[in-house]
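so my prof wants the structure for this chain in the tokens format not the other one, which i didnt know existed until like an hour ago. anyway here's the sequence
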Amino acid sequence: MSKQSVISARIDAETLALVDKIAAAQGRSRAWFVNKAVRDYVEQESAMLAFLQEGEDAIANGDYYTQEEMERWLAERQSGLAEQRRAAG
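here's what i got, hopefully its the right format
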């Protein structure tokens, strides 16, 4: 088991009431619920930061398409699909 730390945070009464309601409905303590909520949020934010960094790295390496390139590609795809439909129908 990892070492645990205690933190303190201010929370409005309405949010605290919701925390207590959900924790009670799940048969969990307030501390368990808050720990899980913080962990889930931190994991989501960490994944988002990694995703953004991956994009920044790709841009730095020149691995991206410009708006004009994407518009041209999309137009070519739409044109090709339209031709296929005309030929089939």
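also thought this was worth mentioning. Residues 13-88 form one domain.
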